[in-house]
Amino acid sequence: MKTVVFIGYGAMAQTVHRLLPQGVRLGGVVVPSAAVAEIKNKLDTSVEVVSAIAELQLEPDLVVEMAGQAGLKEHAGAVLERCWRLAVISVGALADADLLDSLQRVAEQHQAQIQLLPGAVAGMDGLRAARALGLEQVTYQGRKPPTGWKGSYAEQQVDLDTLTEATVFFTGTAREAAQLFPANANVAATIGLAGIGMDATQVQLIADPAVQRNTHTIYAKGDFGEMTVQMKGIALADNPKTSTLAALSIVRAIEQINQVWVI
Ligand SMILES: NC(=O)C1=CN([C@@H]2O[C@H](COP(=O)(O)OP(=O)(O)OC[C@H]3O[C@@H](n4cnc5c(N)ncnc54)[C@H](O)[C@@H]3O)[C@@H](O)[C@H]2O)C=CC1
Ligand SMILES: O=C([O-])CC(=O)C(=O)O
Question: Which residues form the Aspartate dehydrogenase domain (predicted)?
């Protein structure tokens, strides 16, 4: 039996928990101290529910961050210092160059690796491979229904409640997008890191009352040729910002702990 630890236990983590592959158990959950009692009530007593990595008694096979950008910042260093494997979904936190550098240093010091998960998008394998021969251009367009942008900085740009047509409320770099929209544009940072970097990746974000799905469109051009990938993702029932595929990309990473054929 393999053991995983979740950092965060929100909509995504609860979905992943329900879909845990056979032979893997949830051993621990790290949440803010104010949430510990509530989460303990939701979980079997065998699961350690704590507010800091240092409080965990177990030895996990994989730690998965699903706690938002602040959660990654708070706990990732402690995971790497213990040489535990870390998979990250709030990739947008790495738009903070100081955090990226400091995690890289800790990981190198402890010979640890950090797995950046593709989350709500597909095509990161092709984009990363294409980079080896040089990429000229990478763009990302994120289009969600207005409800998917509620509670974000978009509310300061457009009136999401009265929108009648597709409205572009952000144009800029992947780094800016990931920082301005921490719960909505992590994929922009992932695409940046996989391809030509966060500052060279151009991003457009759109609230569109005509769509029901979270629609991510990636375009890349380089010496490999051209690539267009579009994902029309169904959001999680408990969080309209988060695409179901983001949770499934974590299930995939957990499955890989036990797999002989890794695909
Ligand atoms: N890469 C991708 O494709 C995507 C990434 N995300 C990221 O995943 C995160 C989680 O998504 P959801 O579960 O839908 O959000 P959610 O808001 O439902 O859950 C967040 C959870 O993190 C916990 N948390 C907050 N701060 C924490 C901290 N400092 N330490 C430990 N736990 C903390 C909360 O208590 C809650 O349990 C999002 O905030 C976003 O950053 C979300 C969607 C797609
Ligand atoms: O789940 C999605 O559609 C994408 C998302 O929120 C993010 O990248 O933060």
Answer: 163-251
